[in-house]
Give the backbone structure.
Amino acid sequence: MATTRDYYDILGVKKDASADEIKKAFRRSAVEHHPDRGGEEAKFKEINEAYEVLKDTDKRKRYDQFGHAGVGGSGDGSPFGGGFGGQSQNINFDFGDLGLGDIFSSFFGGGGQQTQQRQARGRDVEATVEISFDQAVFGTEVDLTLSLEDTCEHCKGKTVEPGYEMKTCDQCKGSGQVVSVTRTVFGNIQQASICPKCHGSGKIPEKVCSVCHGKGTQSKRQTIQLKIPAGIDDGATIRLREHGEAIANGPKGDLYVNVRVKSHKHFTREGDLILSEEHVGMVEAALGTEIEVDTVDGPVNMKVPAGTQAGSDFKLSNHGVPHLRGNSRGAHIVTIIVDTPTKLTKQQKELLQAYADQNPRHKSWG
Ligand SMILES: [Zn+2]
Ligand SMILES: [Zn+2]
């Protein structure tokens, strides 16, 4: 299966490594971990997987942006189009780059040794849900309805009509793979790929399922209950393993749910902070007051101290967004807008003038 480790870490290069640095790092680690030289096969595959992505400018860009989701193990029709490591193909080792053609041959079962197949799996699926600001803050559960290829109910995904048996595949003689040889300047390259007739299982049905006609899947409308954790932010992606499309003789693909958070009438958000504005009068700002502030937890009383300047920020601890990990919460930050009166009665004007007369810096131009 595809690795979840960071591709740059696997190759031991920096995020901004040049194509040449990546190639050199790959060559070094591929030789070091090659199974024919006593290396661990899983590690070797991981190195190849990382290189498959990082050597390709487009895939590398998608990986930088979306992580593994951007290049994740599905073939044609993946949400990001033409992902690597397709359904019917073995990992495409890059012999040419290494110039090590011959030592690889036995790895592909040349010496009668069964190779580890990269198992075919269902297609990854992408969906989007939209939730409210408050739902994002406190978490929620949404029903997501999708029309997807699901396991065939009649044959339970086995592709064989109930009551009939499976028999050995005549194309691959039960090995589950076919080997093709390509001649290149580096020598003969053997490439093993999954048998197209039995999809790698080595067995085919005596009689194919009468409902799915041997596909093992059928299109079905399904509703998935999706738990959205408190504190999730706009643009986050939730991955549901094996909730994507089904495939015969393999695990389902993954479901990637993009979460969109609607904007709020009064609040904005910056990470775990919730921001809002509150208005106070000029005199209230000067003399101090107590105001009621709307928060996601409801109204909260807040003291505005005497001498508050326009644009001052006040913090209401623990009324912000809960942290995705842990029990703590961010703060709600209130920015004070000081309203200057625009309509004054004659008496109010005189009072303000009297104030101004006592304060030379604020002399009226009147
Ligand atoms: Zn076969
Ligand atoms: Zn069926």
